[in-house]
Amino acid sequence: MKTMTCRQLGGPCEHQHHGATADDVIKAQDRHLKDAAKAGDTVHLPAHEEMKGRWRHPKRSLGWYRDTKAAFAALPEG
Ligand SMILES: [Zn+2]
C-alpha cells in the first residue's frame, strides 16, 4: 500500500488516500472531490472541475495520469 494526499493529486487539502495502485488513489481522489462538491465545499471546487475535465477529455489528460502514476511509483511502500 502507498499513500498519496489530496494535494499531491492536485487538490487543496492533506486528506490521505491509500491504495495498491495509482488507479486506486486516483479513484479515491475522484470520490473525495465528488463528496466535497456535494457537501458544498468550495475549496475543492477547482480540483473537482479539473477532475470532471479529465473525464471529458481523457486524451488531453494523459499527461496528468502519466505524471500521477510516476509520482505514485516513486513513493516508498508502506
Ligand atoms: Zn481534499
Tell me about the largest β-sheet: 2 strands, antiparallel
Query: Mean pLDDT, as a whole number?
Result: 96
* Unique ligands: zinc ion
Describe the oligomeric state of these chains in a short phrase.
single chain
Q: Tell me how many strands there are.
A: 2
* Count of structural domains: 1
Shape call: globular
Quickly give the structural class. mainly alpha
Helix-strand pattern, N to C?
Answer: EEHHH
First-last Cα distance: 6 Å
Q: Counting H and I runs of at least 4 residues, what is the number of helices?
A: 3
Question: Strand percentage, roughly?
Answer: 5-15%
Low confidence ranges: none
Gyration radius from CA atoms, angstroms: 12 Å
Walk across the major sheet and give the strand order: 1-2
Helix content: 40-55%
